């Protein structure tokens, strides 16, 4: 990317949990330290960076704590769990990015903005929640939480899992603070976990129990800050056509139309690649110059369009 | 206060938990909504407001969850618990303050900055931790956590409680982001819970398990942003001379020397008033015009020097 160009990088929550997937604090820290290396290279090259991040495994752990301690301390709602991860991952990113920049002789300020994202209280996700969060529990344990008003669904032999709304992100509400900090030369971390979901009601905004897809929120933020490029960094190098089938193959440089066709034909299965593809497509359709989906290690090359699944305007 | 003057208001964590003290989410929300009413009045009057907040009961709950779920998910360190509360209380403050301002026909932007506070790794608190956090546990439970390297202390019949370092805050590290947002006209929430404690080491900053007194951090931030006034809002209207004795009496308008003398003579007991008095005194000694300690409801009057325990330069 050219000096002064702006990129929004969305770091995957799974990719930041360490190899065992438990999201143990030290593993998270090491994973974040590795993740920011290519980010610091971009900064050193004069690229303007905005960062966001996922939080799935981290929220999963918080939900378990809520559940196991529910008889002793009041559980906090799902939107609070999301908020919590904005600050914990935010501080990890602050420390790690400043270290990585210092090692390159680069001095830039970094800030983490607590960010709310507006959703529609009438989003179909609220009446028919389908997004599973947290770990599997037994039917008996699930029953206890259903009695508290939560939605739980049986996943057969694996057990029961809580399902929640994952409404469309409509607006990154705290984007004005991001703008102000970017204009002053900060590298900004914002909209972590897709942002804390709030709905507009009589009198003002109110938090709601939901999770927001962080890539769909990322492309909204990318458009708001007029990034030329969106890089969605996850734990695989490419989106795969025919994912999970014997004929699966990596998708490299392609077109918006082709990606949309793959998605419509179900090539990305029910996993997390679908929303990433949707986010990339929306960004370019809305006027973004380039979107790439790739692994953490290849962020730099992908930002230049030379790695991962890439679409351009 | 005059239009355009700047006040830093530190909202007590205990004062924001609701009457039953459990820090249940709805109780926190209602308490925050009440707490911001006088803040919104100040904003409506043209006063420039910077907010910070405590987090003691909230961190207490997070520690319990960590402890009760420790066999299932990895506990997170104490500094992460503090970070978590910056975002949860931050979002409550964002929503509540925007509502309260809207009800007054005032339009101002509000932002929450995730804030780290520098402490010294050689602070005596780290070798001899004395600050109790979280709830009381049995000796057997305490033993399990001592085996993980934590410090726990017997408080006699009440049980065992974890004790941690509460090092001196040296610098509000993310104050530059606060400055930038204030200059752009934002009301800023920062340094929640005293800030996330970090130490400087070879290569950069690292989080440490500690809690920082939020009022000592608040006076640092107040000086940094050149506030004329510091208001420390808690659950009592005044600091009390002879606290806990039959002759206890409220301290109204007084002098720095008198407050220092009360503190030296042990008038504030071992509770949380000592650090509030210390913070107020430091602020005025460092050039601040006025510091007040009072209840949430009296924030406005205290900012004018007409309520609470007040000292002036």
Can I get a quick summary?
Chain A is 38% helix and 22% strand. Chain A has 313 residues and is α/β, with parallel strands linked by helices. An eight-stranded mixed β-sheet of chain A has the order 3-9-2-1-12-16-17-15, sandwiched between helices. In chain A, strands 8-4-10-11 form a four-stranded mixed β-sheet. In chain A, strands 5-7-6 form a three-stranded antiparallel β-sheet.
The secondary structure category of chain A is alpha/beta
Tally of separate helices of chain A: 10
Strand content of chain A: 15-25%
The number of distinct β-strands of chain A equals 17
CATH class category of chain A: Alpha Beta
Uncertain ranges of chain A: none
How far apart the termini of chain A lie comes to: 15 Å
Oligomer: homodimer
**Percent range of helical residues of chain A:** 25-40%
With strands numbered from the N-terminus, the spatial order across the biggest sheet of chain A is: 3-9-2-1-12-16-17-15
How would you sum up this structure, described in words?
The structure is a homodimer of 313-residue chains. Chain A contains ten helices and 17 strands. Chain A has helices at residues 25-44, 56-68, 78-103, 124-127, 139-146, 175-183, 214-224, 256-264, 273-285, 299-303; strands at 6-11, 48-53, 110-112, 116-118, 131-137, 152-154, 160-164, 171-172, 187-189, 196-201, 204-207, 229-234, 240-241, 249-250, 253-254, 290-295, 309-312. In chain A, helix 1 (25-44) packs across helix 3, helix 2 (56-68) packs across helix 3 (78-103) and helix 8 packs antiparallel against helix 9. In chain A, strand 10 and strand 11 form a beta hairpin. By secondary structure, chain A is of the alpha/beta class. The relative contact order of chain A is 0.15. In chain A, 38% of the residues lie in helices and 22% in strands. Chain A has a single domain, classed as 3-Layer(aba) Sandwich (Carbamate kinase).
């Amino acid at each position: 990317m050219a000096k002064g160009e702006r990129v929004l990088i969305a770091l995957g929550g799974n990719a930041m949990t360490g190899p065992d997937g438990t999201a143990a604090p030290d593993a998270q820290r090491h994973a974040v330290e590795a993740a920011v290396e290519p980010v610091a290279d971009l900064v050193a090259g004069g690229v303007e960076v905005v960062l966001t991040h996922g939080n799935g495994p981290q929220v999963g752990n918080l939900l378990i704590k809520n559940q196991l301690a529910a008889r002793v301390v009041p559980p906090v709602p799902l939107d609070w769990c999301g908020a919590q991860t904005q600050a914990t991952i935010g501080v990890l990113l602050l420390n790690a990015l400043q270290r990585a920049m210092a090692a390159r002789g680069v001095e830039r300020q970094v800030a983490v903005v607590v960010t709310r994202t507006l959703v529609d209280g009438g989003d179909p996700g609220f009446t028919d929640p389908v997004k599973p969060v947290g770990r599997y529990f037994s039917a008996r344990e699930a029953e206890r939480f259903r009695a508290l008003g939560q939605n739980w669904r049986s996943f057969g032999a694996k057990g029961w899992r809580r399902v929640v709304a994952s409404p469309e992100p409509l607006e990154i509400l705290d984007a004005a603070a991001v703008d102000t900090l970017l204009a002053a030369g900060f590298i900004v971390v914002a909209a972590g976990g897709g942002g804390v979901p709030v709905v507009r009601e009589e009198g003002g905004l109110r938090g709601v129990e939901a999770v927001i897809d962080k890539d769909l929120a990322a492309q909204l933020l990318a458009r708001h800050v007029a990034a030329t490029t969106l890089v969605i960094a996850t734990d695989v190098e490419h989106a795969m056509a025919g994912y999970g089938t014997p004929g699966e193959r990596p998708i490299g440089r392609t077109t918006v139309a082709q990606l949309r066709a793959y998605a419509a034909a179900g090539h990305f299965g029910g996993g997390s690649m679908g929303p990433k593809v949707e986010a990339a497509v929306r960004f370019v359709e809305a006027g973004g110059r380039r979107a790439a989906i790739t692994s953490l290690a290849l962020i730099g090359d992908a930002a230049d369009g030379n790695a991962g699944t890439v679409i351009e305007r």
